């Protein structure tokens, strides 16, 4: 566009190749950026409309042929949305340009050494280079930042109870931690609490216990909270059918206090056994894939903490009723060690799996007779 305006100023003509290059460049860029076909058609319509206007002005002597084609090429880039502004800009810039050139032609310049193009522009009857106004208007429109439009859409909604702030696992709630939020009706889940259904829900759920962490803005459901009087914090987070039981731990039997709540561990029993040659030690895998409910009094990993309480002496595990009985027996038989499982091996759906029953006299160890003397070896799975 700038080149076309310069050519019109210097030569009082605009070569056809410039307008054709602008048209071709528009279609290439439109395809590259993936402009929708209907949008391309609106731009083409704008270009054709301005071509018709330019031809009409050319017919009455108001425009040159090059001006008409450049006007249409600029409209092709701008489209129908900005076409009216484009026409206004061309009109205003063209009027200012015409007034300036008319005033310039009233100045005697014959005595001054001016360039040929300035002398040509000064000559009466040579016309006005409206290509300058067209080029300036098109560049101003194409380079302007896009206008953001805010469209308000009214949807059918209802008030849903959500958390005002983050609520931690086992935290006792209060009324200030809940609020009503407008929610599209088509996305309201079956378990969501609505103001229409339970207008007093905020008061009713105050002093409840969070069964799981709840993020700010997250909808509240009955399954995420335990009402006051329905059990303590640990009972609230314990799944149906499972039991919580604690076992003694120390740094060397709990991976250096690096086990945290919600980690998965294997439970190993180390016990002494009497043999004909005296006493011996045996290790038995009691359970695998066991969820750790708490380390000491800590039931949730605090933000920024990478280790459990170093003074904790117990680990509370999630087991079935029968497995809890087996662990209680194993605690009286020997020392319990916890083996931390890799996060890539976690299977939250499977739950704890039983290994060796400590109530039996057999062990997973293999007895070997070497030169008539019994000894032990252990298999590794």
In whole angstroms, the N-to-C terminal distance is: 77 Å
Helix-strand topology string: HHHHHHHEEHEEHEEEEHEEEE
Q: Name the average pLDDT.
A: 82
Which residues sit in consecutive blocks of at least 5 with pLDDT less than 50? Answer: 376-381
The helix count comes to 10
Structural class: alpha+beta
- Extended strand count: 12
- Largest sheet properties: 6 strands, antiparallel
Strand content: 15-25%
C-alpha Rg, in Å?
A: 42 Å
Note the overall shape. Answer: elongated
What's the helical proportion of residues? Answer: 25-40%
Subcellular location: Cell membrane
Pfam families: Peptidase_A24, RcpC, SAF
Membrane topology: Multi-pass membrane protein
Domain SAF: 158-226
Structure description:
The protein is α+β, with helices and mostly antiparallel strands and 381 residues long. The protein has helices spanning 2-11, 16-32, 37-59, 65-78, 83-104, 116-122, 131-142, 201-205, 233-237, 321-333, and strands spanning 157-163, 178-184, 209-210, 225-226, 243-248, 264-275, 278-295, 314-319, 334-340, 353-354, 366-370, 373-377. The strands form 4 sheets. Strands 5, 6, 7, 8, 9 and 10 form a 6-stranded antiparallel beta sheet that branches. The chain has a two-stranded antiparallel sheet with strand order 1-2. Strands 3-4 form a two-stranded antiparallel ribbon. Strand 11 (366-370) and strand 12 (373-377) form a beta hairpin. Helix 3 (37-59) runs antiparallel to helix 4. The longest helix has 23 residues, at 37-59. The two termini are 77 Å apart. Residues 376-381 have low confidence and may be disordered. It is found in: Cell membrane. It comes from Durusdinium trenchii.
